[in-house]
Amino acid sequence: MNDTAEMLRLEGVSKRFPGVQALSGIDLSIRKGEVHALLGENGAGKSTLVKCVAGFQRAEEGSILIDGREQDIANPIVARALGIGMVYQHFTLAPGMTVAENLLLAGGRTPAVIDWKAKRAELEAFLATTPFRLDLDARPSELAAGEKQKLELLKQLYLKPRLLILDEPTSVLTPQEADEVLGHVREFARSGLCTVLIITHKFREVMAYADG
What we know:
Blueprint: E1 6-17, E2 20-31, E3 35-39, H1 46-54, E4 61-66, E5 69-70, H2 76-81, E6 84-87, H3 99-106, H4 116-128, H5 145-157, E7 163-167, H6 175-190, E8 195-200, H7 203-209
Parallel strand pairs: 3-8, 6-7, 7-8
Antiparallel strand pairs: 1-2, 1-4, 4-5
Helix pairs in contact: 3-5
């Protein structure tokens, strides 16, 4: 399969909540290595759509295809197994844990006994492959908003997702912090590390960083 092959395709996806038709017959196609943006106002259904892809909601109609194959993404565990990671609008960090512990916790398979010497070496090697530099011993309460958002991204990148979904990733960032984070995300996609789907209502970010 070549680099321009489809990573994700949605066909006729619909979702209804009591009294609200959140999604109606949505079609979407995203190619591998692409940074794709969903642009719209609050309440337009953007987050509901990506939650269907990430396994947090179940679409009532339509199909979700990964690499051309229809998938039943029943929950986030299934999504993770398919290589789908998601960074949420609000921070999901464990405040009492260090950066290192938050990264390990993201994997979901933390052993009862951790060989910290080996894990720190692994985490330091991982950080060396990214443009983000965070103190592994720092706690979220000691981090600025931009650093917290970087940690949220690192949690997903540590799992090596094939599709990275970002739900309003710059809502708590300054324009300078937003440019830094989104610039790095675009580099990840350009280098072939993952395909990116960004949910935003900021037209400037779409024009600067998205392919479609």
